[in-house]
Design brief:
By secondary structure, the chain is an alpha+beta fold. The chain contains five helices and six strands. The strands form three sheets. It has a two-stranded parallel ribbon. It has a two-stranded antiparallel sheet with strand order 3-4. A hairpin with a 5-residue loop joins strand 5 and strand 6. The two termini are about 20 Å apart.
C-alpha cells in the first residue's frame, strides 16, 4: 500500500477524476487506524465477511482473506482492467496501472 501512496500523484492523477478504494478483510477500525498512521490518501473499506471478494472472485475462503487482485472500474461502472495478483514489486505493474487508470478515467496521462 505504501507504493500506492508514494506514487499516488502519478498513478491516480492525485485523485482527480478517480476514486481509489483499498479493500481488505481487516476490521474497519484497524484499517482506519493504519490509514491515519501511514497518511494514505485513498479510501479504505472493510470486507470482513468476504462478500465483495467473493463477488469479484478474489476471496480465498480457505485463508479467510482476499487476494491482491486489483480492479480499475470505469466511470460507466464496468471493470476496465484486472490484474491477479497485483505485482507490488514490479515497476512495470505500476506503469500498466497508470495507463489503465488514465484510459478508464478519460484523463490525460500525468506528466513526469
Amino acid at each position: 500500500m505504501e507504493a500506492y501512496r508514494d506514487q499516488y500523484a502519478t498513478l491516480f492523477n492525485n485523485g482527480k477524476d478517480v476514486v481509489v478504494i483499498a479493500m481488505s478483510v481487516d476490521p474497519d477500525t484497524t484499517l482506519a487506524s493504519w490509514a491515519r498512521e501511514k497518511s494514505f490518501p485513498m479510501l479504505f473499506a472493510s470486507d470482513s465477511s468476504g462478500a465483495v471478494g467473493r463477488a469479484y472472485n478474489s476471496h480465498l475462503a480457505d485463508k479467510k482473506l482476499d487476494d491482491r487482485s486489483l480492479f480499475v472500474i470505469a466511470p460507466d461502472g464496468k471493470v476496465a482492467y484486472v490484474t491477479r495478483p497485483f505485482r507490488v514489486l514490479a515497476q512495470d505493474a505500476y506503469t500498466e496501472l497508470a495507463a489503465a487508470v488514465t484510459k478508464a478515467s478519460g484523463t490525460k496521462a500525468p506528466s513526469h
